[in-house]
Amino acid sequence: MALLKTILIIVLVYYLFKILAKLFAPKIINYAAKKAEAHFKERFGDFTNPNVGNEEQVGDVIIEKKTSKKTNTSEKVGDYIDFEEID
After folding, report:
1. Measuring CA to CA, how many Å separate 47 from each of 19, 43, 51?
2. Domain span at 10
3. pLDDT 10s per residue in the chain (87 long)?
């Protein structure tokens, strides 16, 4: 009789947990998402608009030239082999 009572309690606790999880899981996930969002805003809030400190006005044109390195194209990479088709 004690074994049957123990199995019944385990089954009832399982189903009670399942029902409570369906009710409270969305609220718990929403709470965790808000906390994560607040954490990221606190940590990375400075990177949302990187152009805030610049004194540039809308419409200004800025040209930044990159230094180009000239490569020597006369270096031999390999030998050229001419293949002929044999019938």
Report:
1. 42, 9, 9
2. 2-46
3. 899 999 999 999 999 999 999 999 999 999 999 999 999 988 887 665 555 555 667 788 888 888 776 666 666 667 777 888 887
